[in-house]
Structure formats: structure tokens, C-alpha cells
Known about the structure:
Chain A has a three-stranded antiparallel sheet with strand order 1-3-2. Chain A is 58% helix and 12% strand. Chain A is of the alpha+beta class.
Amino acid sequence: xxxxxxxxxxxxxxxxxxxxxxxxxxxxxxxxxxxxxxxxxxxxxxxxxxxxxxxxxxxxxxxxxxxxxxxxxxxxxxxxxxxxxxxxxxxxxxxxxxxxxxxxxxxxxxxx
Amino acid sequence: xxxxxxxxxxxxxxxxxxxxxxxxxxxxxxxxxxxxxxxxxxxxxxxxxxxxxxxxxxxxxxxxxxxxxxxxxxxxxxxxxxxxxxxxxxxxxxxxxxxxxxxxxxxxxxxx
Lengths: 112, 112
């Protein structure tokens, strides 16, 4: 029987990774370094403000690194840290579930 | 190279499972049927209103079933559906990550 203690690792992880976009952000950064504009193009549903806040939260937690290239215009790149890459198993499990769930819903819609 | 299409299975899954508590809720329901009061005790950080809304959203999506026992006082029980049980791999991966992450943070705090 699972007992909840306030310091529940699952709750702590979801306190950081909860929200619609953070795990999706990790998903796109698993491929490698990305620029802000690229992430916005890949995630059309997210606002500029939300993307900024989510990237900052992931950076503060040590999952994402931000590199500023002093060029004109300045170039800012985001990448996963070693800690961030440890989220691959969570992202893979969620992606797998998401795809199966989408297939089941499509079958149900077709059968309706 | 991953391209985002609006119907991205990952985004769809996180649109439902995002937020601080929903995956934690699935975690506690994986053990079996639970009553509302039990879930509130296991998750001291969640408000009654948030728990009600999250359970309703998971029920509408077909992940949770709600059974009302016509007793006095009425007894309401929540359980995972077959679809809900398919989230076990996501919950396990997140629990595993959460525990390792907690250990690393404790080691870093001890070394500081």
C-alpha cells in the first residue's frame, strides 16, 4: 500500500514537469540544441511568454542549459543537460502512450 | 528530425495529463479502488476543488471510473479503467526518475 509523504518523489517531479508543455519541450530538446524560434515553430500552440517561463523553470531546475552567442543579432540556444537527458524514459513512455491512445481514439471514431 | 503536427500525440497526452496532480492521481489509483477522502489524505497538497476537477477530467477522458454506492452516507469510489491502467509505464518511468532525482539532490545538498 503506497503511503504519501509530503516529500513524494512523484509529486516533486510533477511539480516541475506538470503543465501542458514542459515534457513536450524536453521531447524536442532530446534531438539536440534548439533556438527559441525553432521551439516556437515546433510547438505552435504555446505562447511566447509560456515558452519563456517554461524554459526558465527547466533551466533553474538544471534540466536545460542556455547558451548566448554574442553575434548580431544575438543567438540564444537551448539544450538538455545531463539531468535533462535522464528524462528520456519518461518522454518515451509518454510518447508511446500518446500514439497508442491516438490510434484507439481514431478506431473508436471510425467505428462510431 | 521530429516535426510537430498540431495533432501531436505527445501534446495531446500532456493536454490531458499535464498539471501537477493528474499523473500522481493515476499513481495512487494503480493500487486499486479509492474513495475521495482517501485520495485527499494521500495527496495533502491538493485542494478539494482541484481533486474534483482532475478526477472529472480523467473520468471524461475514459481513464477513471466513478461508482456511487447508494448507502447512507453515500459512498463514491474511483478506479482506473483499462485505458487508465495503460498509463502504468508512464507512471513507473516518472516515479523512477523522481526517486533518482531526489537522491541526486540530497547528495548535492550533503556535499554543499
